[in-house]
Amino acid sequence: MPNAFRNAGYVTGTIGTVIIGFICTYCIHQLVKAEYELCRRKKVPSMNYPTVAENALLEGPPFFRKFAPYIGHVVNTFLLIYQLGCCCVYVVFVASNIKSIADFYLDEPVDVRLCMVIILLPLIFINWVRNLKYLAPFSTIANGITMVSFGIICYYIFREPFTTEDKVAVAPFSGFPLFFGTVLFALEAIGIILPLENEMKTPKKFGGSCGVLNVAMVLIVFLYSGMGLFGYLNYGGEVEGSITLNLPSKD
After folding, report:
1. Residue 234's domain spans which residues?
2. Is residue 217 part of a domain?
3. TM segments (predicted)?
4. What is the pLDDT of residues 36-52, one digit of tens each?
5. Domain count within the chain
């Protein structure tokens, strides 16, 4: 996120992150509401993405109904591209951090591609788990580690005073696409929204004013906005793609 704020500026980045978070939340609500309505009309308990898209066209204007048999393939194609891109980014992110640690303890630098190969097998095994409830304990552990990581990063960010000098408040528009893509990647997880909602014991708690979605998105936007803003104000133009790479290795 600090790297995203470098591309947009700390003022534009803060406002933009909140706006993008609001738009993402609104779109997810619309998706879930559409699924509820289609399930009610078709009298089925749940639907996946292709089924929602197909039935939405069938229930829509006559002009769009002829595209219904094909829209499922289009949705699956975009989901595949989205998930592939996310996985690539995560692999690079994890491998870069492993390389940073390995380089500190080893005499010779480690090729980041070797780190990618090492984590490939565990990732394949994880992706074989099709039921999300079996991943819930690991997700809880990961969330705990993430919060600890946030605390450590915040310690290094706030231990020294930072200033807005030499920091860009509003960056040129040429950097905004990178900012938008980074924030959208950080906030969005559209690929698991319907599966997660369908796997919940009480799916109705997913939406609502104080539902799971709103609470989670408010917390995520708050944390990421703060991390991006203060991380950029601290490290400025020297901020890395992952802020963990800016942490002092000797500590």
Report:
1. 2-70+131-246
2. yes
3. 12-32, 74-98, 110-129, 141-158, 170-194, 206-225
4. 888 888 888 878 888 88
5. 1
